[in-house]
Amino acid sequence: MASFRNLSVPLLLLTILFPMLALCYINPAATSVHQNATKSSASRAYIVLVEPPRSNAGEDAHRQWHESFLPTSLADESSESRLLHSYTEVFSGFAVRLTDAELDTMAKKPGFVRAFPDRTLQLMTTHTPEFLGLKNGTGFWSRAGYGKGVIIGLLDTGLYATHPSFDDHGVSPPPTRWKGSCKAARCNNKLIGAKSLIQGDEFGDEEGHGTHTSSTAAGNFVTGASYHGAGVGKGTAAGIAPGAHIAMYKVCANRRCKQSAVLAGLEEAIKDGVDVLSLSLGGDTIASFDEDPIAIGAFSAVSKGILVVCAAGNSGPRPGSITNEAPWLLTVAAGSLDRSFAASLHLGNGKSIDGEALTQKVSPSSKSHPLLYSEERRYCNYKSGSGITGKILVCEGTRSKTQQSNIHRIVGAGAAGVVLFNDEISGYSTMVQDYNSSVVQVSAADGDVLIAYAASSESSSVASLIYNNTLFGVRPAPVVPFFSSRGPSIIAVGILKPDILAPGLNILAAWPPSTGSGRGTFNIISGTSMATPHVSGVAALIKSIHPDWSPAAIKSAILTTSDIVNSTGGSILDEQHRKAGVYDTGAGHVNPTRAADPGLVYDLSVTDYAGYICWLLGDSGLATIVRNSSLTCAKLPKVHAVQLNYPTITVSATSTPFTVKRTVTNVGPANSTFTAKVDAPRSLTVRVSPETLGFSKTGEKKTFSVSVSSHGLGEELHLEGSLSWVSEKHVVRSPIVAVSPRGDTAPDPSP
Ligand SMILES: *[C@@H]1O[C@H](CO)[C@@H](O)[C@H](O)[C@H]1NC(C)=O
Ligand SMILES: *[C@@H]1O[C@H](CO)[C@@H](O)[C@H](O)[C@H]1NC(C)=O
Ligand SMILES: *[C@@H]1O[C@H](CO)[C@@H](O)[C@H](O)[C@H]1NC(C)=O
Ligand SMILES: *[C@@H]1O[C@H](CO)[C@@H](O)[C@H](O)[C@H]1NC(C)=O
Ligand SMILES: *[C@@H]1O[C@H](CO)[C@@H](O)[C@H](O)[C@H]1NC(C)=O
Ligand SMILES: *[C@@H]1O[C@H](CO)[C@@H](O)[C@H](O)[C@H]1NC(C)=O
Ligand SMILES: *[C@@H]1O[C@H](CO)[C@@H](O)[C@H](O)[C@H]1NC(C)=O
């Protein structure tokens, strides 16, 4: 429980911010901006959207137009520090510090659209920076040579440029279309872009987060990656697209990311010409898409052909905790790997418990020690010397720094070791942490076993600790850990979110050296932040093979080829070892090899998204998000969420058939025939028409309809099935979610 509280801290902060945001949100139609807010003479940062300048003039004209909105008092020498950023690519606007009175005045000027207070986003990790250490450093899967010619832009904490992961051996020069610049300690064919969007900041990475995510996406091969001094083995580390280029836009510092800086990063990345954008950050979703600057800015990127990959958030396992859920984003949930930093516990009663230990001691002997559990000392709040010498203490893990230092102290004072069991919410998902002590981490269920054993045999209960180093092939995997944010989306009702599952628990990647010794090191951290760059890397591999594919086509390829079972055919599980559902995993677990050759794709254009925005938000939403004066909702067909040509299908579970249409594009062999295969529970009847799709050309499109009727959901709030188009060579799978009309995320029954 205690650790869950820790994780919720950012959420609580945002709950406090929420009323403020609602009050300060500016509606252009409103006559008075701050009727109900306390007037303040203090200035704060706002992101301001204005109409584009009349003429399609250059940057100077843009700047002049933006400046015409600023209070005249800003013309003085203080203007430099008050005008934070000017935007032309993400939208027409700027970030500026304003008092309430200045904002009131600005809101009355013609051409003003909206203003948002500059909110702070979080990095999507659940680690603490002191989370150092690696024992046996073999990386995750990687494919040499792939990702060639593709540029992955990351919006993050910067990176440690001289880390060997950013060496450019074997990487070709950047494509000539690249317009970016690089101001880092080392720029080469691997690291081609480095910019800080934080005023007065030197490019670097004080947090480690950006070094970790960029090396996960596109780090080069590093042989002999290991944690120095630990005396354990070596391995090769590499990113998912080791041949791709990296452009880092530093938008976060001190573990906080200002929206205004994130927008400035998006702005630069679009101008520079990146192919894939990776955003391991986000806030709590509290606003509709036209009130979310990141959703608005990312739309510009997507409409210029850039795939935007975002973290789903670390607010799980609460249903509806998903963030970054706009349909034009690729939203990534986190799963576990089949790797364990294994340690086991042999009990005096002959039982054995398998756990993990990031501090792997070389254990020559397996000496037995008395086991001690005390309800009052449940969180290891022992005082030194109070009867703990030579004992193995059983405690609940909290991941707090206080507990970490306390453990280090009591082991130093003579305890033989500590077994930390997960809290109930973490269940079976153990986020390993380096305690630099004899600490073994075990599941909540094993915690119960240990407590029962300690209680049953009182003073005679004993255990020994055995370290097994890094093991691979650990089962079950993948498992969705507790922190990964869950669907359904409250805002994008009718669109399944998250989209995809990728490794995000206990991920090993590059890290700045703590000692400044020159050679980089590696670290293991967890979060949807870590899952995101895996998918960005996969997107780069696909983009390298299919440079002409749209962001939606690449997303479709990743979703429809994903795995819904593990390598032995069993279900993917959640943190309690229940079968995971679509709101945990999205379409499934990413499968890079298959994603490169999907057979069919569900494509989407800017016009499709515009029709969806008209349906959801009307003309004002269109004007804010799409900003194309030749498009109006009157001219566009409204696209109900469930009818958007998304690679997953959501329907309302009604007894009368609920019908949706989809169009697939053939990207496989010219002559191919696909047959519909439906997998659904008994209480769903799914009809696909036509049941066969025959193609004779590459790029040919075919439309079909899916009708779902349901007979009794019982207590369920949703049911899951799937539609697969099957040809000789391909299986193109889309999950079908039938949402109970009783739930508040059921799509409108008459699309
Ligand atoms: C703002 O309005 C709400 C109700 O609309 C009211 O309860 C609250 O007292 C008002 N606050 C101020 C500062 O006037
Ligand atoms: C490191 O792990 C690999 C894979 O499990 C194993 O083959 C190797 O022996 C380990 N190295 C050491 C030094 O333990
Ligand atoms: C560690 O090794 C011991 C002895 O070889 C074995 O009994 C135990 O199951 C292993 N633990 C894990 C987590 O595999
Ligand atoms: C870990 O603990 C040892 C002593 O047990 C100490 O020498 C070492 O500096 C510690 N390492 C870190 C990273 O704190
Ligand atoms: C696959 O999942 C099943 C449970 O659904 C589990 O029993 C099995 O061990 C898993 N296999 C692997 C390789 O993870
Ligand atoms: C605006 O929309 C029209 C019609 O779809 C399209 O032809 C044009 O390229 C769009 N303009 C921009 C700037 O995207
Ligand atoms: C596809 O099949 C048709 C007739 O079945 C044939 O005429 C055509 O050459 C084939 N195209 C390819 C690319 O194989």
From TrEMBL:
Active site per database record: 156 (charge relay system), 209 (charge relay system), 529 (charge relay system)
Pfam family, one: Inhibitor_I9
Residue ranges constituting the Peptidase S8/S53 domain according to the UniProt record: 147-565
GO biological process, one term: proteolysis
Gene Ontology terms, MF aspect: serine-type endopeptidase activity
Segments forming domain Subtilisin-like protease fibronectin type-III: 643-737
Domain of life (superkingdom): Eukaryota
Protein location: Secreted
Signal peptide: 1-24
Family matches, as InterPro entries: Peptidase_S8/S53_dom, Peptidase_S8/S53_dom_sf, Peptidase_S8_Asp-AS, Peptidase_S8_Ser-AS, Peptidase_S8_subtilisin-rel, Peptidases_S8_3, S8pro/Inhibitor_I9, S8pro/Inhibitor_I9_sf
Keyword Hydrolase annotated: yes
One cellular component term from this protein's GO annotations in UniProt: extracellular region
PANTHER family the UniProt entry points to: PROPROTEIN CONVERTASE SUBTILISIN/KEXIN
Stated name of the protein: Subtilisin-like protease
Organism: Triticum aestivum
